[in-house]
Predict the structure of Integrin beta.
Amino acid sequence: MDGSKSMKDDKEMLTQLGKQLVESIKNITSNFRVGFGIFVDKAILPYISTLPFNADSCPECEAPFSYKNILSLTDDSSIFVNAVKESKVASNIDYPEGGFDGLMQAIVCEREIDWRNQSTRLIVLSTDAGFHIAGDGKLGGITKPNDKTCHLDADGRYTHYDVLDYPSVAEISEMADSRRMQLIFAVTQEQEPLYSHLKELIPRTSFSILEQDSSNIISILTSQVKDIINRVTINVEGASDAISVQLYSKCKDEKLEERTQCNNLNAGDEVEFKVVIQVNKCPKDQDEWMITLFISPEGHKQALTIDLTMMCDCKCEQPGDQCSKVGDYKCGVCSCHPGYIGDKCECELSGNEVQSTDESCKLTNSSLVCSGQGDCICGMCVCKTLRKPERYKKCAQVMVHVNVISAGASLRTSASSAKTALNVLGSVMNISHASSVNSPVEKRALLPTVTPTVRSLTLLWSSPLQK
């Protein structure tokens, strides 16, 4: 409250209506606490007179002061009324008041004021004058910007009034918003043009016209508290240009619609909210790929915290064990870095040579590498017989899978496919004659004449060109 001498009758009216005020609010909400603070202006020239204070000339006054927290929050209406009654007004010289000094301390001194964490926080600033802002402190030789920190002594007095400049509107807005404060400016009619602009600059702020003697303070507060309690608005903080956030609400029995606010609620009503978050693009700055969103009811410190990580650099494309740490694993396939080849990038190129073992490219220990029809690169055969060489486990598998095993194994194939397979095999392994197979289901294929290195074998036909 403005504690300048011009507000004397307003303070007296608050004393008379104090108990009724508290009881009226308690009819709206059962869990209610109230406190009281008073401000004048910086206690230095040119804001106040530095002449010795004469109590005889103004018995109801005290020496000028900047801001005092008279009473921390309490639920006892009698204590509140007595605190207002015992407080005294003071005089200053210039017309604007130091209300922003007091408002900043009331916002940031959470422990001293005894603000609760999980409650609706409401500050009513009552005045009949304007306010000093950042820069006005230079008139008194104060150039240090306001530090937005609590500076109350054991008696609740603001101690840095002659050290720190007045806070700016932006600083008041920042601190009020970060602490979920809801501000009400109760001002006289002539101050309406000035304080109406603050409503647009400070979140969760309203103003009301105060009667000259503040006789309507009860109706102002009760209507504002009802409006706050009966309205729920969801806010989202922390969003960037890279994402879009859509809010849907289901108010009472209404359908779910895209909106952020529900009105005309009563105690016990439930409101359902749905939040849709969509990433629209990947920021160029990698530091912006991780953001934190805070979704909360307006005026409450409770919030849903969402840590959002944008998948702008897919982990499946990072070097890893799958690709011997020298390739990127993309969609199940290794993309090797320059100088490396192989399914798992396990082979290193040295000029035109490849570091590899040939054993994996043999049918048997005594077989030729890739059956003599190709080169073994990284454990895979690059066959010479193909117009466009590709890799196979064994070059004998250009058209069919060949297993050299003991005579008498079975052959699963059709007759025509078996003939083709035998002819191909005869060509590859220099077989001079291959008998035909008549059964379309299962027959033995015996090869009467083969090269000296192959005594007997059976053919297992499968799909052609399998890698």
